[in-house]
Amino acid sequence: MKQLLFVLILGLAAYLLYASLPIFYVPNEKTEYLTIIGNKGAQKIAPENTMASFKTAESLGAGGIMLQVQQTSDEKIIVLDYPQLNRTTSASGFVKSQTWENLQTHSAGIMFSDDYRYEPIPTLEEVLSSIPTDIKIIIELNENDEYYPNFYENIASIIETSGSKERVEVVSFKNSILKGFHEAAPTIHTGKIMYLKFPFTNIIYDTTPHTEELTFIDSVYIYYNFARKDLIEEYKNNDKNVYIWGANELQLLYKFSYSGIDGIVTDHPEEYLRGNV
Name one GO molecular function term (predicted). Predict the structure, then answer.
């Protein structure tokens, strides 16, 4: 019995190690069109999820930006990472309890630096109308339309009204949110962010894009520790765009630029785009 248990534990450990192995090969040629996507803009240079941050990423040459959205009590879609306001703004409480008029009096940059004291909280409309149309916009959803009434429909309406459908992709960690948004707006591109932690371990893995429930997605966003060659090739062979996220170190950015992926979502777009790798 002890031997069987040992074999099972050893087998599980071997599988988890294999699943967590980062990509290890380097093809002969660098990926020709690798899109560098600034998560929350250029958040190390300017306050995250602000127009200052997005414009900085644009000026650096980023091919895309990832942002997160929330909804006010009067159903205005604003750009902010968390439902709570106090982490990055001068406001407090929850977004869904505040009106847009009230939030316009608060700063989205004061927590970053006093130089950005007058940086406002942006709306999704403002971002889509201000960022050049050749820059990809990835909208991450972490809340559903039960938490925010009409959330999916309001986001879809802004995307369609702004003429941004071709360059926008709505993504989430949560399958339920992706399915709900797809039902509300089936013609808007969607993508799955892969990140699942095994209980009581530091092992992160997620196989849900393999399942039939997400056949509609256009892209997968793989946490870099799991971006193995076979996984990338599997999704590419199934006509999915493949992006890597979480790869912020220069060495990793360099390695993944040769992996055949479509792009990298990074907190440090300035490092890659300034030619430091």
Answer: phosphoric diester hydrolase activity
For residue 214, report the phi and psi dihedrals to the nearest 5 degrees.
-120, 30
Can you read off the two tokens belonging to residue 22?
């980062």
Bridge partners of 204, per DSSP, are 197
pLDDT in tens, 131-147: 999 999 999 999 999 99
- Strand 241-245 and strand 263-266: the pairing is parallel
pLDDT band (50, 70, 90) for residue 258: low
In a domain, 251, yes or no: yes
pTM of the model: 0.86
Number of domains in the chain: 1
Let me know how long the chain is. Answer: 277
On whether residue 234 sits in a domain, the answer given is yes
Q: Within a domain: residue 2?
A: no
Q: Which domain does 52 fall in, by range?
A: 25-273
